[in-house]
């Protein structure tokens, strides 16, 4: 599967939630967190736009430690 270009926000959110993240708050940005097994918390900040550009999505996933294949697998299930 190819990496999405201008992916719909709702589809991206559903895929990220499948990876264990939970929405903490919404405003100009959507803040998500994932509680890890070792007790740490991984934050993820996504702009609250209707469409998410592929470059923004790649950078966000990298910062949250989500690999491309893991995201694409979750995204294909949405």
What does this structure look like?
38% of the residues lie in helices and 29% in strands. Helix 1 crosses helix 3 (68-76). The chain has helices spanning 9-18, 54-64, 68-76; strands at 7-8, 22-26, 29-35, 41-47, 51-52. The radius of gyration is 12 Å and the shape is globular. It contains 3 helices and 5 strands; from the N terminus they run βαββββαα. The chain has 78 residues and is an alpha+beta fold. The strands form 2 sheets. A 3-stranded antiparallel β-sheet has the order 2-3-4. Strands 1-5 form a two-stranded antiparallel ribbon.
Q: What are the secondary-structure elements, in order, as H or E?
A: EHEEEEHH
Instruction: Give the uncertain stretches in residue-range form.
Output: none
The coarse silhouette is globular
Helix content: 25-40%
* % residues in beta strands: 25-35%
Tally of helical segments: 3
State the total count of DSSP E strands: 5
Quote the CATH topology: Metal Transport, Frataxin, Chain A
| Number of structural units classed as domains | 1
**What does the largest sheet look like?**
3 strands, antiparallel
- Across the major sheet, the strand order is 2-3-4
Structural class: alpha+beta
The average pLDDT score comes to 96
CATH level 1 name: Alpha Beta
Radius of gyration: 12 Å
Task: Report how far the terminal alpha carbons are from each other.
Answer: 13 Å
Q: What is the fourth-level CATH superfamily?
A: Hypothetical protein
Per CATH, the architecture is 2-Layer Sandwich
């Amino acid at each position: 599967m190819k990496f999405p270009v201008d992916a719909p926000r709702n589809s991206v959110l559903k895929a990220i939630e499948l990876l264990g993240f939970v929405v903490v708050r919404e405003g100009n940005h959507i803040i998500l967190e994932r509680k890890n097994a070792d007790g740490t918390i991984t934050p993820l900040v996504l702009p609250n736009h209707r469409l998410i550009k592929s470059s923004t999505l790649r950078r966000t996933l990298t910062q949250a430690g989500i690999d491309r294949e893991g995201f694409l697998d979750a995204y294909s299930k949405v």
